[in-house]
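Aim 2, interim progress: modelling of the adenosine-5'-diphosphate-bound target.
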Amino acid sequence: MPDGAPTTPLIEQYERVKARYPGHLVLFRVGDFFETFGDDAKLLSRELEVVLTARGADASGQRTPMAGVPHHAVDAYLGRLVRKGYKVALCDQVEDARVATGLVRREVTRVVTPGTVVEDRILGGPDHNFLASVVLPPDAPAGYSCVDITTGEWFRGEAEEPGVDGALAALAPFQPSEVLVAGLGSPVGSGLAGALHRELPRSRIEAAPAPSPERPAFLSAVAGAVATIESDDRLAAYVRQTQPRLLPYLEVVASGPSARRLRLDAKTLRHLEIVRPMNPDDPSGPTLLSTWDETVTAPGRRTLSFWLRNPLADVDAIQERLDAVDALAAQGSGLLLLRAALGPTPDLARVATRVAGRRVRPPELAALRDGLAAAERARDRLAATATVPTLRRLVVGLDPIPKLGALLRTALPDQPPPTADAGGLFRPGYAAGLDALADAEAGGLRALEALERAEQTATGLRGLRVGYNQVFGYYFEVSRSNAARVPPHFRRKQTLASSERFTSDELARIEESILTARERRRDEEGRAWETFLSEVETFVPAVHRLSRSVGEIDALAAFALIAQERRLVRPVVDGSRALSVRDGRHPVLDRSLESGFVPNDTDLDGEGERLLVLTGPNMSGKSTYMRQVGLLVVLAQAGSFVPAKFAHVGVVGALFTRMGFTDEIGRGKSSFMVEMTEVAEILRAADDRSLVLLDEVGRGTSTFDGLAIAWATLRHLHDAIGCRTILATHYHQLTELVEGLAHARNAHLGVQESDGALVFLHRLVPGSTDRSYGLHVAQRAGLPSPLIAEAQRTLKRLESEGAAVAPASRRAAPTRYTQGVLLAAADPAPSEAEEALRALDPATMTPVDALRWVAEWHRRLRGIRAAPP
Ligand code: ADP
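Predicted structure of the complex, ligand included:
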């Protein structure tokens, strides 16, 4: 609270809680609202667009800013806050405001952070929600751990290379919503935190807690680098602080260096629009995930999303997945039946986690019961046709946990009530004590009805009714006009505008019996529910495993369905460095372009022609082509068939892209600086198994600087790294240089000019093009026609001036380029005096003519350069 702001006992209580939860937004229950005060109120009002008001006033008339949200809708607001990266402490009233003397007691009942939420309404979708930790030692690769506490999956390992780049690359595919960084104060740590903020702008980044002394059992058997073990321990300490009940249900599912995965850094994931569209203004635009998501269950969707962010880089593992997809695709209607069987499965893993965290709602358990039955049907379908190892493994994995199924079926009614305190949680016959209490309550209610009928008959008042409300309990109600006709044993309880309410000894006795039975039934039901949940909890690890198998079979079935329906081909994947594609199509545009997508070939080979320089005007399809090549590799290595007639993918170890400037503008770096930083990162990390896609290099500076950098970059990729590369450029000079390189080739995207208009063919053609058609594109874009006409005149003049020297410099070019001198294009146009000198024939001139010529030019040049005062 700012100095001098007014304090009241309530605000003081709030400040005490704030002090205990530093870095948290404290939502403070006051009546029907969760309120915030002071700076937090301003923040809440800004982030959630809720009204900012003010409260109280001290002697000087100052008021405290205040903003709040209704308590019944708090989950929805919590979801928005954690997605924006806030940590929230919910401080609730822990005594009844009606009976409290003085200030109501309040306590923090729940802490919600982006990486530790488990409620569906806050998570907002089935995709993994990772909480990560990373420990970066000064001179070794970072150790990292990532956990999705909603599914119990714990991934850990070492980055592939030391330093910040390696740490970022290891974390990127997890897209963690919260990252704990160790050693934040050290130079290494703070550099990493800054880089994480840039790379993962949606994540919450903060210092990791100290490791707790006791290691949880699930980590006792794993080995690894010191940094990884330290990272595990810190992450476990944080889970212990925030979600202690879930700690026993975590399980290491992947451990070791990340080398068996195709490395995709955060930029590449963004540029290729794998799970999120690039354009922030169109968050629902199509992505690879949205185009490939034919899954029918939440675990399936989660698995698919993870596979596309984490394609494999191990030939055998890829073949196994492709075999499974192939086998499923061959089943025809069997595939449809399998998908239909899976269809009603809920998010099994998350329901189980919510059981362990005691945040489960009864209908979710009914869904779990039905989901187990669905898994059983899917298993039986699959068992009949499982011909390959992956599918046979999944038949075993789809164990429908019969004991849990039986427990849920005997305990739960067909449709349980929406909340656990509503009553009617169990099927009659499940808990004998509970049934007796429920009978007593029902008996009381029947006695009430009988009493109502008896009093109606005795008094002759047909309108006499028994009613109930929370404050007054049960009563007889008659209209005011009839109030005088009630019998003497009725005692007045309450007078309303149009009616009177009464009680009687008999009514009070029945009321007492009903309320006692009801209270005992509630207590008993609460206890039985807790016992039941503890019993269900013993099956949590089994449900987590089943959920993973459901996810895997659903994702494979989605790949198979797409393979059948979209004219895809099984890629040939091996350990070579080939990348050949016949009639490849962009997986997303191929589905969305109404005008039809033009397929193209790719022929790269690490051993042979591995570098392709692409030219062609803007809008001709250069970046589409590069993305298409990248996406085909991602799909093939994720185990999917690909949109092409034929594809041969020699496994790619890392895929790097650099495209466009839009990304980081506004984050305080010049676009050229950003471009160079990105190129530097790629050159540091790429090796001969990488695929590098560069859309323009060296555009953000002067032409010669840029050209020189582009050429040197290209040489470095070609000679030193030797990776497969596609580079799109407007520097036509580069294409001439390429001809001197052993492993490089030019291609361009064809255009046709007809009647002055430009037609983009989107077809890849060998060789370079020397025209940019920039004016055509500018005209299409709607620049005013006088401006275009002026530009055309200027272009003509520039071209004709250039033509005067072009033959000489063109002829000189090849030798000068191969000597590594890049200045042919840099020769400035010759001056008029040079031209005149060149035109002279000294052999036929007299000395006087020569002197006259010199004098004339001397005068002219002085006249131009040194204008008289
Ligand atoms: P560039 O990078 O050369 O400026 P883009 O790759 O952005 O061009 O392509 C511009 C537009 O052309 C795309 O948005 C798409 O609509 C269309 N396009 C590109 N490639 C193809 C293709 N192979 N078939 C059909 N349309 C294409």
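Residues 593, 597-598, 616, 618-624, 762 surround adenosine-5'-diphosphate (CB under 6 Å). Residues 804-827 have pLDDT under 50 and may be disordered.
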